[in-house]
Every structure is written in C-alpha cells, then in structure tokens.
Amino acid sequence: MSLKPLGDRVIIKKIEAEEKTKSGIVLPTTAKEEPSMAEVVAVGADILNDEKKKDQIKVGDKVIFSKYAGTEVKLDGQELTILKLSDILAVVE
User: Where is it mainly found (predicted)?
Assistant: First the structure.
C-alpha cells in the first residue's frame, strides 16, 4: 500500500536521533527527544505543479519541520507523518 499526499501536503519519514551523546553517554528511550529531522517520501500535486514551490522540495530531501506539526500514520510497519509544506522550516543540504 502507498500514500499519495493531496494538495500542498508532504509525507515524511522521521530520522531517528543518535542514542549516544557526544561524550559517549547512552540515552534511554524515555530521555530521547522526538526527532525534528526527516526525509521526504512523497510530495503533493499542488507543490509539483507550482513553478515557485516545485524547486523548494523534492523526494529524498532531508528537512527540518515544526515540532508539533502534522498527522502521524502507521502504514506497513512504517511510521510516517503527513504535513503541510508550510510546516517545513528548512531543507538540510
């Protein structure tokens, strides 16, 4: 099964944060912060058809998004998030 985002929506897959600090301390799962970096899995048609927006983001980009943005869904064992383009703060290059 696959998801196709509608309108100006984007589907992302969160990138898990490191489980160790730089000093080597292992963090338990309860102490880890929710990741705010993700990889773009799919882009909606309104974004692809808009000349200004289509160059801003594409599938495979790594992005930083708003902390409480989007709707989380679980599909085929994967946890994905659907959010609006405006909830994406930056593309990591």
Answer: cytoplasm
Tens of pLDDT, residues 55-87: 889 999 999 999 888 999 999 889 999 999 999
Q: What is the CATH number of domain 9-92?
A: 2.30.33.40
Residue type, 85: L
Q: Phi and psi of 49, rounded to 5°? A: -90, -10
Alpha carbon separation from 26 to 29, 75, 82 (Å, rounded): 10, 30, 30
* Amino acid residing at 82: I
| Spatial distance between the Cα atoms of 74 and 35, rounded to a whole number of angstroms | 16
Reference 83, options 74, 91, 72, 75; nearest CA is 72
The one-character DSSP state at 85 is G
